Q: What sequence folds into this?
């Protein structure tokens, strides 16, 4: 009897184990332990994006050092918090007022860009010069019509100066006065962007102008990209002109990007063509620094085609804070014809603050 009971118990146990293992409906489910992360852990320096902090990882928990630079940087940060939104709000207010709508479009590109720059040349000490530029871009609810007010007109800036703009400080730039224009946007076909501007230079007496710009982009293959722009313009006091710009570029390995650009412009006052050929490379070294070396040659057609200047520069552009405070260091070497192509070296240091909503897609 005892042997029979023992055999019965073993058979029952085997049946239970068989059902547990072979039948999915009776299998033992695995147990997972869910651990909730604390807010402090989620917001710890090691978890946040690399661009969130302006200091190195080993400085995360260091005590701040009281210094003149710290006081100045804190003042700069406070100014952006106080005035950055105000600049954007001006554009949105003007957008709503002129369009008669209670809503403003989100792609407003108004900005105020201020800073200071210093340039040092052979034998000349560095002198700090303030700089300021602005744009009031009002994309009214008529999406094809904009009101654009800018601190300067690039059509009136000489080609050589425009190509070397970042090498120059404010006293070396041409004064073109602010302009205001109504801009009508449309497309020719499926890919050519076309704009028509009618406006005035904001001075006394006012100088009316008109300009038309057509732009197109082609992808030649999986690497080469071609961009072209054609512009015609007429200023009542300066006459008419035209600009043709063509640029090609492609990645060349190791995160470098190569670009070649050619520009031809007609100068009505001098009755001549001027030209520029620029070769540049660009590399993002990290999320704060971009390096851009360039080589350029400028020319003119009068009295005959000849070279007027050659130059080379190297731009180090560093993001100091967030996406609105930047520094630039630009050593440059120029060989102007007017000085018998004798070398003229300079170094420009610049700090800029952007009070805006949007300025460009990639400022760094």
A:
């Amino acid at each position: 009897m005892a042997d029979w009971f023992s055999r019965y118990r073993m058979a029952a146990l085997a049946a239970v184990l068989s059902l547990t293992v072979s039948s999915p409906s009776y299998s033992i489910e695995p147990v997972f332990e869910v651990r909730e992360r604390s807010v402090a852990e989620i917001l710890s320096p090691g978890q946040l994006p690399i661009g969130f902090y302006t200091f190195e990882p080993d400085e995360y928990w260091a005590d701040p050092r009281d210094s003149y630079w710290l006081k100045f940087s804190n003042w700069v940060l406070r100014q952006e918090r106080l005035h950055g939104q105000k600049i954007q709000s001006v554009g949105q207010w003007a957008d709503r007022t002129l369009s008669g709508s209670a809503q403003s479009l989100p792609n407003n590109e108004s900005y105020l860009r201020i800073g200071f720059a210093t340039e040092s040349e052979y034998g000349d000490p560095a002198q700090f010069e303030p700089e300021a530029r602005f744009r009031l871009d009002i994309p009214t609810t008529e999406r094809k019509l904009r009101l654009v007010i800018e601190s300067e007109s690039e059509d009136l800036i000489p080609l050589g100066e425009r190509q070397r703009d970042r090498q120059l400080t404010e006293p070396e730039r041409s004064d073109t006065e602010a302009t205001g224009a109504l801009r009508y946007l449309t497309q020719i076909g499926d890919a050519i962007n076309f704009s028509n501007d009618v406006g005035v230079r904001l001075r006394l007496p006012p100088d009316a102008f008109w300009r038309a710009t057509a732009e197109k982009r082609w992808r030649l293959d999986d690497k080469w990209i071609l961009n072209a722009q054609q512009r015609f313009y007429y200023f009542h006091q300066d006459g008419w002109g035209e600009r043709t710009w063509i640029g090609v570029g492609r990645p060349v390995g190791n995160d470098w990007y190569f670009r070649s650009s050619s520009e031809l412009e007609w100068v009505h006052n001098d009755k001549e063509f001027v030209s520029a050929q620029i070769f540049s490379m660009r590399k993002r070294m990290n999320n704060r620094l971009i390096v851009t070396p360039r080589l350029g040659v400028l020319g003119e057609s009068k009295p005959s085609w000849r070279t007027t200047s050659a130059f080379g520069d190297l731009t180090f552009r560093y993001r100091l804070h967030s996406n609105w405070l930047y520094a630039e260091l630009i050593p440059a070497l120029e060989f102007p014809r007017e000085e018998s192509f004798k070398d003229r070296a300079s170094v420009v240091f610049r700090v800029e603050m952007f009070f805006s909503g949007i300025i460009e897609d990639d400022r760094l």
Helices lie at 2-22, 39-42, 68-99, 159-163. The chain has a mean pLDDT of 78. DSSP finds four helices and 14 strands in the chain. Residues 68-99 form the longest helix (32 residues).
